[in-house]
Amino acid sequence: MNTLIKNVDIITMDQQNSKYTKGCIAIEGQKIAWVGEEVGLPDSFHADEIIDGEGKLALPGFINTHTHVAMTLFRGYGNDLPLWEWLTEKIWPLEEKLEDMDAYWLSLLGIAEMLMGGVTTFSDMYMHMEYVARAVEEAGIRAVLSRGLQGWHETSHIGLKENRDLYEKWHGQADGRIRVMVGPHAVYTCEPDFLKECKKLADELGVGLHIHLSETRKEVEDCKKEYGKSPVEHLNDLGLLDGHVLAAHCVHLSPEDMDIMKQKDVKVAHCPISNLKLGSGIAPTDELLERGVCVSLGTDGVSSNNNLSMIKEMSFAALLRKGVKEDPTLIPAHTALKMATYFGAKALAWEDQIGSLEVGKQADIVLIDITKPNYQPKLDMESHLVYSAHTGDVDSVWVAGKQLVKDKRLLTIDLERVYNEVEKIQARIMY
Ligand code: NI
């Protein structure tokens, strides 16, 4: 299926930061065949479908680099508690009751929310990942999946096996939309030997690690007490930072930690709203970016956010450092937008195919309705997207060349059915 989107304003997020007014995007199969002025459109391109992009702004789909999508069940549950209490007293006891098909329906709910908010790729760490993968395959979104692994009890090897099985069954599947990483949960839930086993598995499979890192002050203090070093130093000394690592949160970092992260090219999934809601703190993103560390954006699970809006996340990312440091020049709008798109792709080691609108890349495209009052006057669209946009402004979404949202409506997910199933799960687990 070939699609031509005409008369559309475009922010490509390519290396030159190319932008077009009344340009066009040609989609050939899964990929972008042309992006730019319509006069440059190759004669050989024949569209099966032509879409008038008048009043729309096209940009690369948002990339949510840290979430636990099936946690949609816990939206609004156990609010306003510290992380450890929230996990041990509220979340973990209920998670034990979750079954495979629950993860499928709960993931579909989260995926629906993300697609309608312009998210085309997400990176997930959770349980029952086989069923998360099925939801991804059916919904048409792109995802990097890892089994959340805890290494402090005798059953930890089961999780490792599940992560391996997930790789063998799903890596590269769904027309290449699904990739797999290895997901050690955190230094406070994984013994050093277990962390090394995770690294061994990741190396054997040729994939990266997805881990929570230095999220709270308590995590850092406990790690120092137990191992005499910070979580970053601890992971580095265990050899875990040698290779692709996606580290979520990174709130409490020393300058030395940040230098190590730069040296080892650790990718950060900055989750500002989750960090605020759990009272964890505010990550030093400007200092990381200044060092050249790749900082992407994640929502974290719905349970600590309480939604999956990357537009909201961008806004918080841009505003927080300005306020904390009393410096309005920090994290400008373009940087926040880059964190939500190109840096997201880079954080997932997928920037050769996604993260910007360029010829030959995957057609993961979002159209924003810019006829709404919050986009007037049309002075600076990057600024509008970061400081003025709402998720409800997302009009259309394509992933791998397939349209998944049209006129603000989902084409691949039956929302009514999903709401119904989720209500049944809630009744079974929570009451
Ligand atoms: Ni998380």
Indicate the percent of residues in helices. 25-40%
Structural class, judged by helices and strands?
alpha/beta
Query: What share of residues are in beta strands?
Result: 15-25%
The description of the largest β-sheet is: 9 strands, mixed
Strand segment tally: 17
Please compute the radius of gyration using only Cα atoms.
21 Å
Poorly predicted ranges = none
Question: How large is the count of helical segments?
Answer: 16
Q: Based on CA inertia axes, which overall geometry fits? A: globular
Q: What are the distinct ligands in this entry? A: nickel (II) ion
- Average pLDDT: 96
Structure overview:
- It is a single chain.
- The chain is of the alpha/beta class and 431 residues long.
- 39% of the residues lie in helices and 23% in strands.
- The chain has helices spanning 83-95, 100-116, 129-139, 156-170, 173-176, 192-205, 217-227, 231-237, 255-263, 272-277, 285-291, 310-325, 333-340, 342-347, 381-387, 415-430; strands at residues 2-11, 19-28, 31-36, 49-52, 56-60, 62-67, 119-126, 142-149, 178-184, 209-213, 245-249, 267-270, 295-297, 365-369, 394-399, 402-406, 409-410.
- Strands 1, 2, 3, 4, 5, 14, 15, 16 and 17 form a nine-stranded mixed β-sheet that branches. A four-stranded parallel β-sheet has the order 6-7-8-9. The protein has a four-stranded parallel β-sheet with strand order 10-11-12-13.
- Helix 3 (129-139) links the parallel strand 7 (119-126) and strand 8.
- The longest helix has 17 residues, at 100-116.
- It is globular and about 65 Å long.
- The termini are far apart.
- The model has no long low-confidence stretch (mean pLDDT 96).
- Bound molecules: nickel (II) ion.
- Nickel (II) ion (NI) binds next to loops.
